[in-house]
Amino acid sequence: MKIAIILGTRPEIIKMSPIIRECKKQGIEYYVLHTGQHYSYEMDRIFFDQLQLPEAKYNLDVGSGLHGKQTAKMLAGIEEILIKDRPDVVLVQGDTNTVLAGALASSKLHINIGHVEAGLRSFNRKMPEETNRIVTDHISDYLFTPTETSRKYLMDEGIPEERIFVTGNTVVDAACQNLEISKNGANILDKFGLKEKEYFIATAHRAENVDDKKRLSGILKGFSQIHHEFKLPLIFPAHPRTVKMINEFGFEVPEGTHLIEPIGYLEFLQLEKGAKLILTDSGGVQEERCILKVPCMTLRENTERPETVDVGANLIVGTDERIIQGTRKMLESSFEWENPYGNGDAAELILKELQ
Ligand code: UD1
Ligand code: UDP
């Protein structure tokens, strides 16, 4: 069996890393095809270095752009590579434009597609990710879902049961494999002068939030209110898209919010683990801190990770007054919940099913 692993953005590199490691361990033939959707050092290369991943065999260097142009460049590039270096199966992970292009190119070439993290639904068609998920799920041959909830969503959409495998999410494998390693490295809390449970962290990058003046302003106001009420620093490793939009709208970063460049995964895991509370619109961060037992508030109106809300680990607060109200509420709650995303053996289960 030969596998082509297609990836292109920060979360895909992190969540595919356990599968790459498992392929190496089991001696399975594979190659990595990077679309180049993310390309800045701190959004791309740093993860290959920290996670000791092999170089991608192919990199399309597509870069940023409008959805149509970016996806089209990927589609053309992926097709060419799959024709000359045909695998038995293509693996894509998540819901980015890279995933859509990878799945579409494979489908037209009649190459089997495995969708890792299948069956997530926000039921918000305005999110580009929702379109990517739905299309990819419906043309995939093997759908690896993180939970029973996502399996049910797929079955409700008429996807045959025999294509669906509940494996857990490789985000657990990655967190378990790297948390220990991260403890051996430099202590990021010391670097920023932080004390455990005496700081907040926040991330935001969703287009529907940061490209919208009112919503981005609401998020920054929420950060300010939290700092004034709790007198603790809020560390904000900001995605390049967010920095660009803060500048474009001419917003000031509020007092108490420390905007920093995106940081490496090993450092980010340490920061997450030590935080009092996390505010985010990221999918991966909602999952990770549920595993690390740190409470979270989601700066959106919905989530495709309802399991985190169901177990009491996550509150949906949008981008307005609900941020400060939710912070008060969340900090009074218990921090005990079950991790809904599996035991950290998702990569092994996925490869077992494929074989
Ligand atoms: C993409 C995914 C999103 C995912 C996120 C992970 C789509 C539609 N969106 O969003 O689902 O959650 O990645 O982080 O696929 N930029 C850089 N350097 C980079 C990459 C991006 O400076 O390495 C800047 C550019 O200004 C670019 C902007 O960020 O225009 C947005 O990048 P893009 O890849 O289009 O979308 P993301 O917001 O990263
Ligand atoms: N992450 C990181 N450094 C940061 C912020 C996030 O390594 O400064 C990691 C985080 O641990 C998680 C992933 O990036 O595994 C989430 O990616 P992102 O929020 O960009 O995308 P999403 O999960 O929303 O698609």
CATH-assigned homologous superfamily of the largest domain: Glycogen Phosphorylase B
Oligomer: single chain
Strand line-up of the largest beta sheet: 3-2-1-4-5-6-7
Please describe the biggest sheet, giving its number of strands, its sense, and whether it closes into a barrel: 7 strands, parallel
Number of helices: 16
List low-confidence stretches: none
Residues in helices, as a percent range = 40-55%
Main features:
355 residues, binds uridine-5'-diphosphate, six-stranded parallel beta sheet, 15% strand, 2 domains, alpha/beta, 16 helices, single chain, Rossmann fold, binds uridine-diphosphate-N-acetylglucosamine, seven-stranded parallel beta sheet
Question: Can you walk through the features of this model?
Answer:
This protein has 355 residues and is α/β, with parallel strands linked by helices. The protein folds into two domains: 165 residues, Glycogen Phosphorylase B (Rossmann fold, 3-Layer(aba) Sandwich), CATH 3.40.50.2000; 151 residues, Rossmann fold. It contains 16 helices and 13 strands. The strands form two sheets. The protein has a seven-stranded parallel sheet, sandwiched between helices. Strands 10-9-8-11-12-13 form a six-stranded parallel sheet, with helices on both faces. Strand 9, helix 11 and strand 10 form a beta-alpha-beta unit. Helix 4 packs parallel to helix 5 and helix 7 crosses helix 12. Bound molecules: uridine-diphosphate-N-acetylglucosamine and uridine-5'-diphosphate (UDP). Uridine-diphosphate-N-acetylglucosamine (UD1) binds next to helix 1, helix 5 and helix 11. The site of uridine-5'-diphosphate has 15 residues, from helix 1, helix 12 and helix 13.
